[in-house]
């Protein structure tokens, strides 16, 4: 699997914003789909947003209208802009490359450290 590095997490107040970054040493455009996942304490891992090279982006219902995923090809980076953050957005966020927009979690062998997002009330 392609190695991607996440950054940009932190502690913010509810209603605030964060921008997460996902970078690769290769071409970010060469990855068919770049996706953000998160895992909250005691909760199952879930897809947050996914960006294909072509076609529409995908978002979890819980973040629609608040989060935006985008690719900066020149910087080989995918961003996740998170606005109007809520305490329930708290979790460890991971960036992954995957072959299609809808990919089973079983596709991934490991997740790494990710970047921590904590939203206070």
Describe the structure.
By secondary structure, the protein is an all-beta fold. Helices cover about 0% and strands about 45% of the residues. The strands form two sheets. A six-stranded mixed β-sheet has the order 2-10-9-4-5-6, with no helix packed on it. Strands 1-3-8-7 form a four-stranded antiparallel β-sheet, with no helix packed on it. A hairpin with a 6-residue loop joins strand 4 (about 35-40) and strand 5 (about 45-50).
Considering the chains and any ligands shown, give keywords for the structure.
single chain, 121 residues, mainly beta
Outline the fold blueprint.
Blueprint: E1 5-7, E2 10-13, E3 18-23, E4 33-39, E5 46-52, E6 58-59, E7 67-72, E8 77-82, E9 91-98, E10 115-120
Parallel strand pairs: 2-10
Antiparallel strand pairs: 1-3, 3-8, 4-5, 4-9, 5-6, 7-8, 9-10
Largest pleated sheet: 6 strands, mixed
Strand content: over 45%
Strand order of the largest sheet: 2-10-9-4-5-6
Query: What value does the Rg take, in angstroms?
Result: 13 Å
As a percent range, the share of helical residues equals: under 10%
So how many helices? 0
Number of strands: 10
Ends apart, CA distance between termini: 37 Å
What shape does the CA trace take?
globular
- In round numbers, the mean pLDDT is 94
Uncertain segments are none
Order of helices and strands: EEEEEEEEEE
Structural class, from secondary structure content?
A: mainly beta
């Amino acid at each position: 699997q392609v190695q991607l590095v996440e950054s940009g997490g932190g502690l913010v107040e509810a209603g605030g914003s964060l921008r997460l970054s996902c970078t690769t040493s290769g071409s970010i455009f060469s990855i068919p789909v770049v996706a953000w996942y998160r895992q909250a304490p005691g909760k199952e891992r879930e897809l947050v947003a996914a960006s294909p090279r072509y076609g529409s982006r995908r978002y979890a219902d819980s973040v629609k209208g608040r989060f935006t995923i985008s690719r900066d090809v020149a910087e080989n980076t995918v961003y996740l802009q998170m606005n109007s953050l809520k305490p329930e957005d708290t979790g460890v966020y991971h960036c992954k490359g995957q072959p299609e927009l809808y990919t089973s979690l079983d596709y991934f062998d490991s997740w790494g450290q990710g970047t921590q997002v904590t939203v206070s009330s």
